[in-house]
Design brief:
This protein has 430 residues and is mainly alpha-helical. The chain has helices spanning 8-33, 36-43, 47-75, 77-100, 104-136, 141-165, 169-188, 201-209, 212-216, 219-248, 254-282, 284-304, 308-322, 325-333, 340-369, 371-374, 376-387. The chain is built from 17 helices and no strands.
């Protein structure tokens, strides 16, 4: 008999480590995207060719994202995080070198490397995230993604400052890569296995018997994935094109473009950090329907705004509107603890495919119709997500999951969570 347990302090430390990993992921994203105008200028590319260049990152992502569920299931989320952050940070520094020497082939290779690493690492982080959520016994995925947004805000502000100070993108990318590597390396050392909630041999067999292919055949999982797809596209399109739309179509300078991106991710941060309370108070479906409505309004304002000021207002509402879509989809995918890790990996795969693949394709539309007009297609995907919100509703009879954790595999016959005397049990997910 093997018995392994975590104290509440251990779980809290694990939770903080996951928050740091999400923060680093946001920092990596905005450190690249907020300076897309500098990348385009350094490589002498317009919107259309720039969209094709971003497809290099997408191709790398698709090569990895289609297998991410299998990789995470086979090797574990922690190993995937270690390996994938190693290659994605090298890719980020490599893009800086490519821009410095105006080397488009090198930029293609490095962006593909970033896509390859980020696709699997993001899926792995979400699998770890829902494991911590179940261990804590309350909704916290929106807070985790809120820390992702905090990372994007800080990254965007640092990028705007670097642009204003005239720091070349080469040095910007190198110090961002080093900072991210340090944060992630320390955080992973504080993480634990995502396999938890199995109190006996029978339950462990249920967990191990549910495969990735089973999740792809599960209609409920696919409906949640399609919901996440629409919201991820709405989020990703702003990440890739908000700054360029402000500079190329509103006539703003590069610093204003970076600030506009910071407004969007700042609004997302506010929505995610405050959304935890709303989700626990009012439930998933009413809250997400309201945020989808805000996303529709905000994106419409940005598309048709007559000036930069109104465009910033649209970005603000748009950011709040899409803030809870992705994390809530992850939480919904984890309702069944026996299928949680596999279902989350599948839903993450669908979401990140849209997040990374959709925006570059929008660049092709932007080349012919303008970036803002090209964003109009995203409105239809937001409507699709709004229609699918009913599938986010938790099961009517949800087993109360006390915070439990299993570190050793394959068989655990006794699991106990240390708690202090007279300590009240945490809130449950149902």
């Amino acid at each position: 008999m093997v018995s392994t347990s975590l104290s509440r302090k251990d779980i809290s430390t694990w939770y903080r480590a996951i928050l740091a990993i999400f923060f680093a992921s946001g920092l990596a994203l905005s450190g690249l995207l907020a300076r897309l105008p500098d990348i385009a200028h350094g490589l002498e590319l317009s919107a259309g060719p720039m969209g094709l260049l971003l497809l290099a990152q997408t191709l790398g992502s698709f090569l990895a994202v289609t297998a991410s569920g299998i990789l995470v299931s086979r090797f574990g989320a922690r190993r995937c995080l270690k390996f994938c952050y190693s290659i994605s940070t090298c890719g980020l520094a490599g893009v800086g070198i490519a821009v410095h020497y105006s080397n488009i082939p090198l930029a293609v290779i490095c962006l593909s490397t970033i896509g390859l690493g980020s696709a699997v690492s993001n899926v792995s982080a979400n699998v770890q995230g829902v494991a911590v959520e179940r261990a804590l016994g309350r909704f916290v995925t929106s807070t985790m993604h809120g820390f992702f947004s905090i990372g994007t805000v800080i990254g965007a502000l640092l990028s705007a400052l670097d642009t204003q100070l005239g720091i070349p993108f080469l040095w910007h990318s190198i110090y961002f890569a080093c900072l991210i590597a340090i944060i992630v390396a320390y955080s992973i050392s504080q993480c634990h296995s995502e396999h938890y909630g199995a109190e006996d041999t029978h339950t462990m067999q249920q967990v191990s018997s549910y495969k990735v292919r089973d999740a792809w055949r599960d209609k409920h999982t696919i409906f949640i994935g399609l919901f996440v797809l629409g919201m991820a596209l709405a989020e990703g399109s702003a990440n890739d094109w908000a700054a360029l739309a402000l500079t190329q179509e509103y006539g703003a300078d590069a610093t204003t473009g970076s600030i506009g991106y910071a407004v969007f991710v700042g609004a997302m941060t506010f929505g995610r950090l405050s959304g935890t309370w709303f989700l626990n108070r009012y439930g998933r479906v009413p809250v997400i329907r309201a945020t989808c409505t805000l996303a529709l309004c905000g994106l419409s304002i940005f598309i048709f705004a007559p000036n930069v000021l109104i465009g910033f207002l649209g970005l603000l509402i748009w950011g709040i509107g899409v803030s809870l879509g992705f994390p809530t989809g992850m939480s919904a995918a984890s309702d069944d603890p026996h299928k949680s890790a596999v279902r989350v990996s599948v839903v993450s795969t669908i979401g990140y495919a849209a997040f990374l693949g959709g925006p570059p394709l929008l660049g092709l539309l932007g080349e012919h119709f303008g970036i803002r007009q090209g964003l109009s297609i995203v409105l239809g995907f937001i409507l699709l997500s709004m229609f699918l919100t009913k599938h986010l509703r938790p099961p009517e009879k949800t087993t109360q999951h006390r915070p439990i954790y299993t570190e050793s595999l394959p068989i655990i016959t006794s699991i106990q969570v240390h708690s202090e005397q007279n300590e009240q049990p945490p809130r449950t997910l149902d």
